[in-house]
Amino acid sequence: MRALRICAFIVLLGLCAPHLRAEFCAPPDAMKQQLSGTPSAEALNELGVWFARQNSFACAARAFATSIERDSQQKDLPRVVFEFGAALYYSGDTATTVTALQQAESLGYRNVKLNVLLASALDAQHSTAGAIEEWRKALEFDPEAALELDALSSDLNMASMYQEAVDLLEQPRVRPHRTVNQFMNLAAALVQLGRSEEATTVLEDGWNTYPASAEVARQLATLLTCLHRDAQAAMVLRLAAEEQAGIAN
Amino acid sequence: MLRLPQFRRPPNLAILTAAGLFLAFLAFGVSSHPSFTVHAAASSTPLLPISIDYPEAGSIFPPGIPAPTFLWRDAAGKSWVIDVVFEDGASPLHLAIQAGHMQMGEIDPDTVSESNEMPKLTPQEAATFTWKPDAGTWTKIQAHSIAGPATFAITGYREGKPWSASRVAFTTSKDEVAAPIFYRDVPLMPTANTSGHVSPLASASVPLIHWRLRDIRKSESHTVLKDMPTCANCHSFSADGKTFGMDIDGPANDKGLYAVVPVQKQMTIDSKDMLHWKSDGALGTARVGFMSQLSPDGRYVLSTFAGPSVKSMIDSYYVTNFLDYRFLQVFYPTKGILEFYDRKDGLRHPLPGADDPKYVQTDGVWSRDGKWIVFARAAAREPRTRGQRPALYSMDENETQIQYDLYRIPFNDGRGGTPERIAGASENGMSNNFPKISPDGKWIVFVQCRSGQLMRPDSQLYIVPFAGGTARRMRANTRLMNSWHSFSPNGRWLVFSSKARSPYTQMYLTHIDANGNDSPAILIDNATAANRAVNIPEFVNIAGDGIEEIKVKVADEATRVANAKEKGMPKSKSSIANGEFKR
User: ipTM score here?
Assistant: First the structure.
């Protein structure tokens, strides 16, 4: 079964090869000798790492792809497939990234960076359900990670999973770490659930945490106005304007 | 080195979030409930709310505790006025205060490591203002918040006008704490050797562990033991406060030793004070005790041992260490029986009713009268299975999963009895562990978590009647890790550890009334440096200054040599795992 999957994956490498060949990839002089003739998978992997460190991600992806084609039984295959996927991601090919990283995952590679890259690639492909699953996996490594919480709560709201967004951001462990985006997403989810008073409290708390955030102040003022708390809304807007003027000065 | 770029939410999501909020108004309308508003004392202007983070509403302070630091966040106020109103008729306080931003505490340079991080403020803490009443003001607040609550009202001013306000009510208990807290004060410095094996602490750093005593009426703790060249673990005191016990490793990392000494102001642990968990073979060859507890009268030591069928420690404990200093170790027994050591005959004895090898029986604790033992039990299993994937972080699903239930048996002068399952602390799909019995024998406070025990991020404190019943989640639980609790000798206070404010664990108090109701957590401030962790706090039934110093003379030269050899070996986290691309 694993062999079949690898075969299918190698076919995929062939499909994406034209893209990978598009960039001129010159190896460093120090590696030319070990890359002469038929280089080993190990040498190609080292080359891939070198290209990645030069930010030549398409070249890195090509080196990793060639390595996988050369030796699909290599000991470190799950990691190499992950590196291939990561290089694809940074080269901008998010569609192939998804396939590569899912392959790395199915081969047993476990690293939070795999889940973060895969989730980001899925988001870029508008595959929200898949992205939600990967953001959740990434959060298992660090439940307080701001990037993952920002992205997951956004995706949950986009998928109309408002209660899940509330549950995520109301976790006691998360509260002291909430970012502006998280306050906004939480309030948005609460409003969608018809819990506008709670949404107001969240935004008040958010504004007390981020007094310089014009975004939070504006949303808070909007919500206060809708709740007929006009005087308070005016106070928020005035203070936000002063804050912005202070920042501008 | 390659770094992940700063990911941003996809732009379409940002738009949708803001737009979603607006659309929600259109789709659902916004309910217009009467809103909670705070008004300035002499004005009808509705003010903006201040977020008061500490103390929480309903907090109960112990009498005599030094002034706490009040914490709040306020986007509107530039200066603040505090009014404290008392229900006992005392004249209120009206104070224009100078508030500062929250700061990190003192740093211990010896425990700064590449494998940990300097403590840092959360976004919430970075926005927090603080005020600490002077001693005279706090004394008055305490004196007049016993009969009824004191209401702490804070008003934020800007350009001479009130803009924001909030209030919180708290009380001071008439119940004294009346005993100091003995605790371990540890660095969080996980290390990996060249082969990648991770240890919670390098042997060379073991002397950085301190043991301290805190009289909660004082503003700082007193170090009673430090510079131990060998590892020492769980400590225990007899209920009468006269006897102290502690696991201490002997020469060649011998973990078969336990120290028992009388409690005095000047204590010395000498070779003559060491118990050897010797085995005659009938009790098995594994000699490692776990969570040993002295009996109330100090005669017995109750502990978990592997049992006769298990050869070594690694066959009975699931242990995984991580380089993440926040939760650096997972550690719990999967096999084991309770045994007691009788200091009169110098022998270990299995405790009938808690000695069934089909189960792991652990965490045994005594009732104050010495008649009952409460313990945690689960079906025995191998610590690891063949092909089991390694856990990469605390609470990884690849950890060996185990859920303990609480049981009790009579001690019966060592004859034990039939174990009775404690309803409310068992068979609930969770791991119920680390029980402690209230001194009046009415309650058990225990930890509940998803799996395993000790230092679990999701651990929460629960209270259940001693005979079993409905367990209640305690009010004092904080947002992250609540564990290592201990009752004060009068039973009215519980101390526990938590990572609520920092990955560097701190200790907290909660008041428990006769009906088992507890109150929000009160921080015991300044228990250690901001980059050190407090663990295993235990009340000791002695005067506040009852221990001045503990000297350990059994420290072995061989251990010193071994430690010296290990110096320089630890690898930092950053050199173990880095970016996506490495070879």
Answer: 0.85
DSSP letter for each residue of A85-119: HHHHHHHT-HHHHHHHHHHHHHTT---HHHHHHHH
The structure tokens 């921080």 sit at: B523
What is the DSSP track for B131-190?
A: E---HHHHHHHHHTSSSSPEEEEEEEEETTEEEEEEEEEEEE-SS---S-EEEEEE--B-
Instruction: List the structure tokens of B184.
Output: 């371990």
> Contact A192/B393, CB-based, under 8 Å?
no
Residue B492 above 60 pLDDT? yes
Q: Which of B254, B262, B259 is nearest to B271 (CA)?
A: B259
Strand-pair category, B59-61 with B460-465: unpaired
* Distance between first and last Cα of chain A: 65
Helix H or strand E segment including B421:
strand B420-421
Residues of B in contact with A178 (CB under 8 A): 123-124
Count of CB atoms situated within 10 Å of the CB of A193: 16
pLDDT tens sequence across A81-134: 999 999 999 999 999 999 999 999 999 999 999 999 999 999 999 999 999 999
d(CA A71, CA A92): 26
* B35, B122, B396 ranked by CB distance to A227: nearest: B35
Share the mean pLDDT of chain B.
87
Beta carbons of B374 and B437 less than 8 angstroms apart: yes
Q: The pTM is what? A: 0.88
